[in-house]
Amino acid sequence: MAKNERWASRVGLVLAMAGNAVGLGNFLRFPAQAAQNGGGAFMIPYLVSLVVMGIPLMWIEWTMGRYGGGLGHHSTPGIFQSLGKSRAWKYLGVLGLLTCLGIASYYLYIESWCLSYAIYSLLGGFSAEPPAAFFDRITGQAPNEVFAVSVPGLVMFAVCIGINIFILSRGVAGGIEVVAKVAMPLLILFGVVLAVKGLSSHPDADPNMVESPWIGLNYIWEPDYSQLGNPAVWLAAAGQIFFTLSIGMGSIHCYASYLRKKDDVALTGATTAWTNELCEVVLGGAILLPIAVSYLGLEAVRQSVAGGSGFGLAFMTLPTLFNNWGPAFAPLAGFLWFGLLFLAAITSSLAMGQPVMAFLEDEFNFSRVRASWALMGMLLLLAVPVAMIHEQGVFSDFDFWVGTFALVVFALLEVILFAWVFGIDRGWEELMRGSELNVPRFFYYVTKYVTPAFIIVILLAAVFKPSVGWDGFFGSIGSGEGVPAWEWAGDSVIGKILHKDLVTPEGASPEVVSYYESLRSIRTYDRLGLIGIFLFFSALVALAWSRKGTQERGTPA
């Protein structure tokens, strides 16, 4: 059972926690976000967000997890209930299970792409086939087609689910920790090899290069201080902190619940955070864009990352660029790159699956094997719509609602619970129990006042974002043009509800009109599905606590 498990070593714990945090966003999202939002100046709001929101939330989740674990709870419904005074907190904790399961359902699909690309790269496949053609082949994607079916893609998806389930069935120390001790050093090694190779190349030695890779590195880090007055840059930096630390989803609580009462959470949590920052800021910034700029030129790369994501460069462009490194090294380079992404993905997806299994073990006395089979059933049930309707459909909708919006809501709930319901004094005392790090008192006040206020601003900005963006909105006011006509942005919460990102183009053919109508209907159903999952877990929570109450009264369960 989950309550009998412990981490075998602090090193294993730190690597597992770092693996949870170090994910695809470190290598695909961070460099593009930095480049798009002021380059080196982006690091100022990024570091501010890390200090006033990221680190406090990290410590909150570590502390809550250890506290709840001491009472026999290893998932957020029980952990929330152990800190809260109201019975409602355990139902709010269900959001942690929903986010973990929902994100895992599509994250594992991307993980399967990474594994497919790694294998195909090693076989030299991209020397003959364009990456875009390979991507279409493993996803079944076609223009204006709602449903996409690829048997090889579904097989690899199932393989990745199977790998995760097998590791999770081995337990916390025997499965997750063992994998983390191997995967994290390999990930860093792969990243260092690619970064050194990419940055040591020079146009004089390689006629295919159009610019020095250092221009790409400078593009990320050269500060554009005029962007510091842009509210959109600050929101982007805060959003990146959520993505990079894996906060607001219940996985940190779960991992921390396997600590002993006096195990250090302050120093270990800080070590985990800075390990993640090392991978993101140093490795994440030194691979993707420098290599791309050296062969494509700065302007082409600038246009490619205009949307704030490096996905296109990573999967559609980089495999071809590696061919410039020669027939001997190109397959290895592709394997190292996609192997790095696969390792980053699997260490994160394991952390998403563990809370669901822990919930079943704690509250329903499931064995480890039985819980792993139950998790696999849930993932396979969600895998079909995710894999078959992923372009602007279930995949992207899940990513917004459970992979973005729900994280912010959950973070706000947990900081209120920790600092205001449980009480900041009790919370601070719990954080400092067994600590080898003297946390500055500054964070006491930040956690109670600044962090929740910061999150509320992020939440309101996401809900009410205008179509011109907050930079355009405030820019119009500042320039004396007045308040612009209000239209909801397609990526705002209200815009998503109203399908503003799925407006049928004017003059569209009947085929295209039908395509958009189908997507809007599918999104409505998948949102109802997410509500259904939340209600399902809430019903399980109610049943579990009802059984506990019956047993405590000494009557048959």
TrEMBL record:
Subcellular locations according to the entry: Membrane
Its domain of life reads Bacteria
Task: Name the membrane topology term.
Answer: Multi-pass membrane protein
**Keywords of this entry:** Membrane, Transmembrane, Transmembrane helix, Transport
The protein's matches in SUPFAM superfamilies, at most eight in alphabetical order, are given as: SNF-like (SSF161070)
Question: What InterPro entries does its record include?
Answer: Na/ntran_symport, SNS_sf
Does Electron transport count among this protein's keywords?
no
Q: What is its main location?
A: membrane
Task: Kindly name one Pfam family recorded for this protein.
Answer: SNF
Q: Give TM regions.
A: 7-28, 40-60, 91-110, 146-166, 178-199, 232-258, 278-298, 329-351, 371-388, 400-422, 442-464, 528-546
GO CC terms, sorted? membrane
Q: Which NCBIfam families match?
A: Na_transp
Name recorded for this polypeptide: Sodium:neurotransmitter symporter family protein
